[in-house]
Amino acid sequence: MKYMSTRGKVKGINFQDAVLMGLADDGGLLIPEEIPFMSINEIEALKDKSYQELALAIMKKYISDIGETTLEKIVFKSYEAFDDERVVPVIKLGDFYLSELFHGPTYAFKDVALQFLGNLFEYILDQRNDYLNIIGATSGDTGSAAIYGVRGKKGIKIFILHPKGRVSRMQELQMTTVLDDNVFNIAVEGTFDDCQYIVKEIFSDVEFKREHHLGSINSINWARVLAQIVYYFYSYFQTDAADSMSKVNIVVPTGNFGNILAGFYAKRMGLPINKLVIATNENNILYRFVKEGDYSIKNVVQTYSPSMDIQIASNFERFLFYLFEEDADKVRKSMEQLKVEKKIFFNDELMEKVREVFDATSTSNERNLEVIKEIYEKYKYIVDPHTACGIDAVLKLKNIYDEPFIAMSTAHPAKFIDSVVKAIGVKPEIPRGLRELEDKEKRVYELDANVNLVKKFIEKNL
Ligand SMILES: N[C@@H](CCOP(=O)(O)O)C(=O)O
């Protein structure tokens, strides 16, 4: 499998180079040159595989420059630190399924891909006798998952930018209490969008990127999306729908569009998905897009689900590429339009195509807490505020569609204790990895939201 850029100037590169390149050198995002399609019989044959076996079966369709035995080792190693042997267990709450994606070391769905990416980087760098300086932006969960994915790995340094005061206390502590010499946490005066903008600007300086061997852990990096495709299949196989290989709807709490994009690839690969439902909070650009064709950037507001406090969803560009029938010029022009006019225009014909695949909901802050409460009172089960946005979508849509729903549960509620306590007056059980973080020594650097300042900081610490 070869990879190319959504903006058309980078083509024909292999998987390992795509992983190291992160953001494509023309400013676009790397995607596979084709999406492997599987017949329903082929998909059904994967049904009884373990998570790791399934990951191998799917990933090898996209990776032709790593031998199967090596890939198998990387995959198996990546899921050793999960606290459930199924990696992604699926439970049933009443009439819908909940896919628990938070059983990794930092208790969010990001671990599923970042444990894999950390091991992948280690393998590639070792083969090439090379080193890597990772730059990433986080609205809360990616940061710690990336740090845990690469801490202690030879030849890797990691610089993580988070918006100061806009992540939960637990998310902040998960990052800032990691004191390894190769870890640099930067609290930026601004929003996540500012952090992501800085990271993308730094990667767009191709000279700087090459000179300093910069790499990406955000879902800009194709390997992130690839590893996430697996749990759409695995979650589906754990539902009754898999008995007859019939369709399901899948709800995904979404900020940066990376998680749901993996679902889009799973659907294109043939997985029987009816609708992918984008569950947003009050930062609802993706909801406005699906419902009204309005893709215009507004100011970010702070919500109880901070990981989704995002307006500029970086993976939207990958979706645009397919929406525009693989026309890289149209993608480039639209991204240019977004930069200048802060919006992209979509005609009715395009929106019809969008709505064939996606539906969307938006959950207010107030409703978010209500959902946490409703679920707790009904099932004695505590969900985090991001998952609650997803469950709100299930509750709003389940009478409209015939197919059963799977909601992706993206984080452990203990990462958002304050909001959970506000909703139900009860503290969720704190898992071992999150206990006593407050008492630990912390290290964080503070910088203004300025590309050059961040570049200087990185150069000083290489
Ligand atoms: N919600 C994310 C934002 C970054 O998204 P990514 O999928 O591109 O890493 C976070 O928690 O940091």
Automatic annotation (TrEMBL):
CDD domains: Thr-synth_2
Modified residues (N6-(pyridoxal phosphate)lysine): 110
Reported cofactor(s): pyridoxal 5'-phosphate
SUPFAM superfamilies: Tryptophan synthase beta subunit-like PLP-dependent enzymes (SSF53686)
Catalytic reactions on record: O-phospho-L-homoserine + H2O = L-threonine + phosphate
Sequence ranges assigned to domain Threonine synthase N-terminal in this UniProt record: 2-79
One MF term in the entry's GO annotations: pyridoxal phosphate binding
InterPro entries in UniProt: Ser/Thr_deHydtase_PyrdxlP-BS (IPR000634), Thr_synth_N (IPR029144), Thr_synth_N_sf (IPR037158), Thr_synthase-like (IPR004450), Threonine_Synthase (IPR051166), TrpB-like_PALP_sf (IPR036052)
Protein name, entry field: Threonine synthase
Source species of the chain: Deferribacter autotrophicus
